[in-house]
């Protein structure tokens, strides 16, 4: 027997329903190679499914950070590219994926480290981005997101060139106690941009995770995961 739903319950369901983050709406083309930490992830999947893609960012010569929901199949990364249709950059496979052990399908702890099979060659186009130094660091409010996700609603193709968008973080009950920070509005990241960095003052403070249907964009708060990050890369 079905459970009767009143209007308030339906509104709550709609409010909390989440979808993968993956397209930058309202952004603009980045200055070519001005984000040398950006990484494109290409996933080869089984069962004749179409390959998927996510963003990521280089945090050490042999480690990329991204979202845990980007895990699955064989992952190839591309570094040092701006136009993915015209540039090859540095391509390499992922040796081992380390999704956060407490990640779940509700996008809690949606963060992952990827150990690369090779060490990236550091150039002006390929360079790691700094992470916060302590878990107590406050995340600045004015930040930047970048990615190759969709730029036009209802168009499936992502952008061939890297896009940038300035976002302002706001106070949101959804993000207050769950290792998350939020931005809101019509413009923001939404499926091919998942896993990209939330960059504030030149430091990666967050990982693009998901969004609610009321256009709240959710990012994992990197300072809360520093102990796990350092232990994983050390071991």
From TrEMBL:
Highest taxon, organism lineage: Eukaryota
Signal as UniProt keyword: yes
Alphabetized PANTHER family for the sequence: GRANZYME B, KALLIKREIN-RELATED
Subcellular location: Secreted, Extracellular space
InterPro entries given in the database record: Peptidase_S1_PA, Peptidase_S1_PA_chymotrypsin, Peptidase_S1A, Trypsin_dom, TRYPSIN_HIS, TRYPSIN_SER
Ranges where the Peptidase S1 domain occurs: 24-234
Source species taxonomy: Eukaryota, Metazoa, Chordata, Craniata, Vertebrata
N-terminal signal peptide: 1-21
One of the GO BP terms on file: proteolysis
Enzyme Commission number(s): 3.4.21.4
Catalytic activity: Preferential cleavage: Arg-|-Xaa, Lys-|-Xaa
Species annotation: Hucho hucho (huchen)
GO molecular function, one term: serine-type endopeptidase activity
Gene3D superfamilies linked to this entry: Trypsin-like serine proteases
Keywords, comma-separated and alphabetical: Disulfide bond, Hydrolase, Protease, Serine protease, Signal, Zymogen
This protein's name: trypsin
């Amino acid at each position: 027997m079905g459970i009767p739903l009143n209007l308030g319950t339906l509104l709550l369901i709609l409010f909390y329903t989440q979808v993968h983050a993956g397209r930058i709406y309202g952004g603009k083309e980045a200055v070519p190679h001005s984000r040398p930490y950006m990484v494109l992830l290409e996933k080869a999947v089984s069962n004749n499914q179409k390959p998927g893609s996510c963003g990521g960012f280089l945090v050490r010569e042999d480690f990329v950070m991204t979202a845990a929901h980007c895990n699955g199949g064989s992952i190839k990364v591309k570094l040092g590219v701006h136009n993915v249709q015209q540039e090859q950059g540095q391509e390499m496979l992922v040796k081992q994926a380390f999704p956060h052990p407490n990640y779940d399908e509700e996008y809690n702890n949606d963060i992952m480290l990827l150990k690369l099979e090779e060490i990236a060659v550091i150039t002006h186009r390929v360079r790691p981005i700094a992470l916060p130094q302590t878990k107590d660091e406050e995340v600045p409010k004015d930040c930047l997101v970048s990615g190759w996700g969709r730029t036009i609603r209802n168009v499936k193709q992502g952008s061939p060139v890297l896009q940038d968008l300035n976002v302002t973080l706001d106070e949101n009950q959804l993000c207050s106690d769950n290792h998350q920070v939020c931005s809101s509005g019509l413009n923001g990241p939404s499926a091919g941009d998942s896993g990209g960095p939330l960059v504030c003052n030149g430091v990666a403070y967050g990982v693009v995770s998901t969004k609610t249907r009321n256009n709240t964009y959710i990012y994992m708060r990197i300072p809360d995961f520093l102990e796990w990050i350092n232990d994983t890369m050390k071991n």
